[in-house]
Amino acid sequence: MIDETEFTPEDIEAARILFARPATFVMGAAKIEQLPDPDLPEIAFAGRSNVGKSSLINGLVGMHKLARASNEPGRTREVNFFDLDGRMRLVDLPGYGWAKASKTTVKKFQDLGRDYLRGRVTLKRVYLLIDSRHGLKSVDTEALDALDLAAVSYQIVLTKADKLKKGEGEAVQAATLKAISKRPAAFPVVALTSSEKGLGLPELRAEIMRTTGATLD
């Protein structure tokens, strides 16, 4: 059985090469009917507004402006698709926890995200981003419940780990793993990352490559 938490230097290097290949923005879908054909494996990123989804996507592919980061929370109001060398799609889901959006607007785009989760046959895993400085909050519970209900495999990715003091990262990893231990669709590994410093990104690339089955050939 493959140890899902360990990667060889060869795994890390293959993933580095893969994610260095061309990545392009494909489209943003505001309605479920607008989604591209499900002809490539997909992994999706979800999380609270301003948790660092755009920064993580940009960090994984080594580009500064592939996914547009914004200082205004809630700007991602479509399901945005990015193509990685014709081998997989990276999908940026609408953020949640908006403070400045109307309830009607929030529901519209959260429903779009849920529809995508339920019906996307090529979706291999969702990476749910959580700010490592704060850990899981009550607002994240609805997202966890939705993922469990959709029966989609998901993994927690802690972001902004460069803002933590020494030892705090391991503590929040352990606390988060304990909190999700009984959730049926949760992958039992919590990643600790920093897009700014590159921490954890090589391993996350390797994890995504393994999960999607993508190859360099």
Secondary structure blueprint with pairings:
Layout: H1 9-19, E1 23-29, E2 42-47, H2 53-61, E3 79-84, E4 88-92, H3 103-119, E5 123-131, H4 138-150, E6 154-159, H5 168-179, E7 191-192, H6 201-212
Parallel strand pairs: 2-4, 2-5, 5-6, 6-7
Antiparallel strand pairs: 1-3, 3-4
How does this structure look, described?
With 217 residues, the protein is of the alpha/beta class. The protein has a single domain, classed as 3-Layer(aba) Sandwich (Rossmann fold). The protein is 34% helix and 19% strand. The protein contains 6 helices and 7 strands; from the N terminus they run αββαββαβαβαβα. It has helices at 9-19, 53-61, 103-119, 138-150, 168-179, 201-212, and strands at 23-29, 42-47, 79-84, 88-92, 123-131, 154-159, 191-192. Strands 1-3-4-2-5-6-7 form a 7-stranded mixed sheet, sandwiched between helices. Helix 1 packs across helix 6.
CATH-derived topology: Rossmann fold
- What structural category do the secondary elements indicate? alpha/beta
CATH architecture term: 3-Layer(aba) Sandwich
Low-confidence stretches: 71-75, 98-102
Strand order of the largest sheet: 1-3-4-2-5-6-7
Top-tier CATH class: Alpha Beta
Total helices: the number is: 6
Q: How many structural units, i.e. domains? A: 1
What about the largest sheet?
7 strands, mixed
H/E element string?
HEEHEEHEHEHEH
Instruction: Give the total of beta strands.
Output: 7
Q: What fraction of residues sit in β-strands?
A: 15-25%
Helical amount among residues, as a percent range? 25-40%
**Radius of gyration from the alpha-carbon trace, in angstroms:** 16 Å
Shape: globular
Measure the end-to-end span. 24 Å
Within CATH, the superfamily carries the name P-loop containing nucleotide triphosphate hydrolases
Average predicted local confidence, pLDDT: 86
